[in-house]
Amino acid sequence: MARTERADDAITEATQPAGVEPSADGRARHAIVLADPRERWRPSPIGVIARLAVIAFYILLVIAIPHLIPGTLVNVAARAAVFAIVAVSMNVLMGYAGQVSLGHQAFVGVGAFTSAYFLSEAGMPYPFALAASLATGAGAALVLGMVALRVRGLYLALITIAYGLFAKEVIFNIRSLTGGGAGLRAPRPGVFDSDIAYVYFCAAVLGLILVFDWRLTATKAGRAIEALRDDERVASSWGINVTAYKLLAFVISGSIAGLAGALFAGIEQVVSPIDFDFTLALTFVLMTVVGGLGNRWGVIQGGIFFAILPTLLEKGHSNWHFFPFTQLNAQWEPLIGALLLILTLVQFPGGIAQQQEHLLRWLRFQPFRADPVVDPALAGRKRKRGAGPSGQASGLAGPDVPGLADARPSERGTDG
Known about the structure:
Elements: H1 2-15, E1 20-22, E2 28-30, H2 45-68, H3 74-96, H4 104-121, H5 126-147, H6 154-169, H7 175-178, E3 184-185, H8 195-217, H9 220-230, H10 232-237, H11 242-268, E4 270-271, H12 278-291, H13 296-319, H14 333-346, H15 351-355, H16 357-363, H17 376-386
Antiparallel strand pairs: 1-2, 3-4
Helix pairs in contact: 3-8, 3-11, 3-12, 3-13, 4-5, 4-6, 4-11, 5-11, 8-11, 9-11, 12-13, 12-14
């Protein structure tokens, strides 16, 4: 009998998976082993090599794109880089600070006309024109921010709409400054005179803006701006100067938009008031929301997509002679943008960034998928989707598991 019991125990131990202990009645008792919170998760050497390879592929793809596309479409690539910069600008104001802007095309227009005026009328060097565009964009945003300090929501949206319309109909039609309806020439710098060289220049500026945005979110000022999005009263109770940091968000956003305007003027080398209508403002809002508010990589992809969308529609209409491309053209862009906005708000509130959550996590040298046992936020999300009668999802530990609340997210994962 004793020999039989020892044999049964040996079989039980051999068939138990890792992390499972047998109980007195022979049933499996799961033991949750939590990672040491002092240890930071690191990918395996193969995981590091794979991540670096993918990042290198994306960088090489960006470098090669101007040479892979037809020469007539190179300016579309420059437009995509400029729209990505505008998306970062919108993300500072809408994604970080939680402020609505439906007149952002005015900041871009101010920067474009400033650059064109100093280059073609005043004969100033190109770096000076870029700095002036950045400064005028910041100044215009500061004025709008001071006006909009005591309002929010619908009233703030109305003020920004009024500002955008005022800029297009009045400021951009001052003939002595903007050339009126004829517009102004905006020559490129000599070293970036060719279309391909200008694409690389715009991409380099985008890279610098991304570094700035990354460092901004790591500073005290950046964290204070992000606190405004959640609740201004709570932020004020923690000693954050709501007025000052809201103005700072406007100024940073406006300065980046002004710089993008200077680059925008150099794409066609002519800038006119008709380029900055209310449709452009709606496009800026759509690409930011569809990209994913608060996520720089998501909004960049949204900006690139909406920059090339009219060209994609036109090329599809002219080259693919079957339905639905026979009916589609650039005039369908607003409708497609509206449908994408509805889809984002209903199905994917986080936009493109939400759909790429695991990939972006992996490229940041983090686990591809967070372990729900040690990630309380993910476990809570799973429980909401598949909760049973007891309020807990099947297969997941409940909130009363010892030590679960002390686990640190993103310290463990399921990939190498």
